[in-house]
Amino acid sequence: MRRCDELGAISDEPGKLTRTFHSPGMQRANALVGSWMQSAGLEVREDAAFNLLGRWTCSRRGAKTLLLGSHLDTVRDAGKYDGPLGVLVAIAAVQHLREAGVELPFQVEIAGFSDEEGVRYQTTYLGSRALAGTLTRADLARIEEKGVQRARRRRGEFLAYAEVHIEQGPVLENRNLAVGVVSAIAGQSRLCVEFHGRAGHAGTTPMALRHDALCGAAELALAAEKCGVLATVGQLTVAPGASNVIPGHATLTLDVRDQRDAARRAAVRVLQASAKEIARRRGLRFTWTPVQETAAVVCNRALTKVMQAAAARHEREVLLLPSGAGHDAAAISAICPVTMLFVRCKGGISHHRDESVKTADVQRAVAVLADFVQILAAQHA
């Protein structure tokens, strides 16, 4: 928890916590967390995508690697725990195992991914997708730092991936549970929608003759609210942007999520049809630009059972719950089976400076992850 505080003081912006891909703050964060990895006895390096990696090598020839970790970047004006907690819990668990003299039949590598939130380039999981080798040409074209694709690792190298993360929701708190095991990660569609109307004088243009781009965007935002899945308009930009001018141009972001890919895609189609109808009725033009689409991921059943068994040693009830938020585990699932452990957070608050976790809950998460590693080791002995 002291390390969370220390890491949370490293930021690109004064007075708030913000760390984005390969920023000066991220470079300082990697250096600090790397020093903690070294203290835990790990071999530390940074790959071509600026992912921080700490490795515990085993003596078994040809052994695969168990990957642990989460991300070290943040949203703007973030809390201290979304992402970094998972990296620091992994370091603590591995240090505990090493100090106890545990020998493993596989390598262990802890990853502090360089970009999960997608703040700088609007492409989520940049760090973990670089490691998985799934960045597209479009992704690579928008990234100024060239050569990130060299971070790609061999398929078949990894045994599994396990990630600890704050829940970012209220379920565990409502059930009075410290930790829970994740069943699936929701799929996500990110879109950019623009409405093009006609600017005009606010005092001289009759209401019936207006082509107000903002009103069109507002209608679409209300349609998103009723589309049947999780949908959010998180950003809205209006031009010209004067109090006495009718908006002639409005740009909005649309974030659509569901654990069922079919339901999510159906909602996106409905919203696109709604935007078309809104534009027709209001005399607007619209553009509909997909930014990113991530499929839903079901956590590996065998690994989930191992995580449940580890959690059962420390929790009175092992709750299995889905994640509505995206995680690096979704990207890493392209190259190996994945599992996740959620940690209770106060009020379910996340992506906000009021993020909060209990020390006792974090201690329990460290113990569960350490036991998960040992149960998995016994299965592969």
Give structural notes:
With 381 residues, the chain is of the alpha+beta class. It folds into two domains: 2-185 and 297-379, Zn peptidases (Aminopeptidase, 3-Layer(aba) Sandwich); 187-294, 2-Layer Sandwich (Alpha-Beta Plaits), CATH 3.30.70.360. 34% of the residues lie in helices and 24% in strands. The chain has helices spanning 2-8, 24-39, 84-99, 126-132, 137-142, 171-175, 213-225, 261-282, 301-312, 328-332, 359-379, and strands at residues 43-46, 52-56, 65-71, 107-113, 158-166, 179-185, 187-196, 200-201, 230-232, 236-239, 245-246, 249-258, 285-294, 297-298, 320-323, 338-343. The strands form three sheets. Strands 1, 2, 3, 4, 5, 6, 14, 15 and 16 form a nine-stranded mixed sheet that branches. Helix 7 (213-225) runs antiparallel to helix 8 (261-282) and helix 9 packs across helix 11 (359-379). It is elongated, with a radius of gyration of 23 Å. The model has no long low-confidence stretch (mean pLDDT 97).
